[in-house]
Amino acid sequence: MRQARTALVAVALAAIPTRPTSGPVGTSAEVITRHFTPRDQQVARYMYVPFDVPRDTSRIGVSFRYDRADGANVIDLGLFEPGPLTLGTTAFRGWSGGARDGISVGIDQASPGYWPGPLPDGQWRVALGLYKVASAGVDVTLTIETSRDPVTASPLKLAARQPEPIRTGARWYSGVLHTHTVHSDGELTPQQLADKAVGEKLDFIAITDHNNTTHQLAPIDAPGLLVIPGEEVTTPGGHFNVWGLDGARAHVDFRILPGTPGISDVMRTATARGALVSINHPVADCLACSWTHQVPDTVSAIEIANGTAVARQQAMTMWDVLLRGERRITAVGESDWHRGNVPLSVPSVRVFAPELSTRAILAAIRARRVIVMADGSTPPPTVVARAGGQQARIGDDLQIRPGEPFTVAVDAAAAQYRGGRVAFVWNGEAIASEPVPESGHVEFERFGHADGYLRLHVFKADGTPLAITNPIFVTMTPSRLESPYGGSAKR
């Protein structure tokens, strides 16, 4: 979610390597002022200020200032090289949103959030995102500098990552899927974020900076930790994560107004590249953070544990509406970590996968083999549904005959579960509840009467949620299929 807009100019400048000391061959500067109104903010949202870049330019510097009017005006910053401004254009060079007042893009280096590389001559555009504009309007003053330094260009290379799979063996892997670094509005570098994840004994993290994937340029030394490249696509109609989107200058376009069809197009393009799409904080208390787009078929997951208790309950309701509409969307829970001393993994996910690799983790999320956990260290409960000699686990289908009994067994023996309760949820409604005994074993018996889905909610002794499973789907048609957990499951 969009955090308080703390000034990070010093962090951004510190992250830019020192340039050659021989000095620029030639530098030119231009100052441009534009006035924007509430109408501009509501109708267009993104404004583009053109400027010319001469041949042989090696660095472009852009800074901007405006009256913030005690938070009534908030303007975001981005950059496009010569080319079309159509949705999905390859002319996109980067985005820093409101995190920085100035950025630098050069042949050999760039500010976090922007891609270095050749600087084609012609008409570039500063992109201004009108997040908030006061009733009186706002003047935005841009200072644009271009220089010709003695810089030797080299091919753009992403930082090396450790080979995958990092570990083998089917198990529940612990991780977080929504984090931010200095490449958007987070306070840690990718290396510092990885160090924090290792300190919390996580198996994987996904880095999802707002509207860019330039964190891939930063080397990370964290043996044993899987780092999944991603992006939080921050549109005016809500935010969504894209996991597994790697490659130089990879990004998903965010300039999609609510009610326009572009949301389906950009999600389809991302999934065609093998990435996975998840709606973030569908109900939120910041401007344009709640989900107001449609939910295309390419959406695979939705956050249900991000924000206030009320927002989480509303997100859960949205998830159940989708499930009842036969949309088998995976629930995830994420900390949306930006800064501070709070853990990365509150909340987090457990993903049952055959190995620790980007491919395996994303495939398991698609298959709904996920438990949302309140923290990163509590062991997940074991859940098994049985009927007629067959069994199914989280994400599986269990097929039974009408009137046939089936049982759902939960084992939650870890100390964190003692004194708590387990709720049996059918089609989104909690219909039974049992205390967790000393053994940790709880069992529910039901009778098949209609197609539906079940899941389990496990609560601490004080009533706060500790674990929420994804569904097991119950159908009335006999069939059999092997479960990836071992044994057989009905589908």
Q: Could you give the topology of this structure?
A:
Blueprint: H1 9-14, E1 26-36, H2 38-43, E2 46-53, E3 59-65, E4 74-80, E5 92-97, E6 102-106, E7 122-132, E8 138-148, E9 167-179, H3 190-199, E10 204-207, E11 226-235, E12 238-243, H4 262-272, E13 276-279, E14 299-305, H5 309-324, E15 330-333, E16 348-356, H6 358-366, E17 370-373, E18 382-387, E19 390-392, E20 397-399, E21 405-411, E22 421-426, E23 429-435, E24 441-447, E25 452-459, E26 465-469, E27 472-475, E28 481-482, E29 488-489
Could you list some keywords that capture this structure?
491 residues, Jelly Rolls, TIM Barrel, Immunoglobulin-like, 3 domains, 15-stranded mixed β-sheet, 4-stranded antiparallel β-sheet, 6 helices, 29 strands, 12% helix, disordered N terminus
Structure description:
With 491 residues, this protein is mainly beta. It folds into three domains: 9-148, Sandwich (Jelly Rolls); 167-373, TIM Barrel; 382-489, Sandwich (Immunoglobulin-like). The protein is built from six helices and 29 strands. The protein has helices at residues 9-14, 38-43, 190-199, 262-272, 309-324, 358-366, and strands spanning 26-36, 46-53, 59-65, 74-80, 92-97, 102-106, 122-132, 138-148, 167-179, 204-207, 226-235, 238-243, 276-279, 299-305, 330-333, 348-356, 370-373, 382-387, 390-392, 397-399, 405-411, 421-426, 429-435, 441-447, 452-459, 465-469, 472-475, 481-482, 488-489. The strands form five sheets. The protein has a 15-stranded mixed sheet that branches. It has a four-stranded antiparallel sheet with strand order 1-8-3-6. A hairpin with a 2-residue loop joins strand 11 and strand 12 (238-243). The chain starts with 8 loop residues before the first helix and ends with a strand. Mean pLDDT is 92; it is low at 1-23.
